[in-house]
Amino acid sequence: MQTTNTISRFGRRVFTTCLLLTGLVVSAGGSKPLGEYQVKSVFLFNFTKFVSWPTNAEPSTNSPFVIGIVGEDAFGNVLDDAVRGEAVQNHPIVIQRFRSGEAIGNCHILFISRSEKDRLNQVLAQVRGRPTLTVADAPRAAERGVMINLLLVQGSVKIEINQSAVESARLSVSSKLLNLARIVNSETDNPTANP
Question: What is the pTM of this model?
Answer without folding.
Answer: 0.81
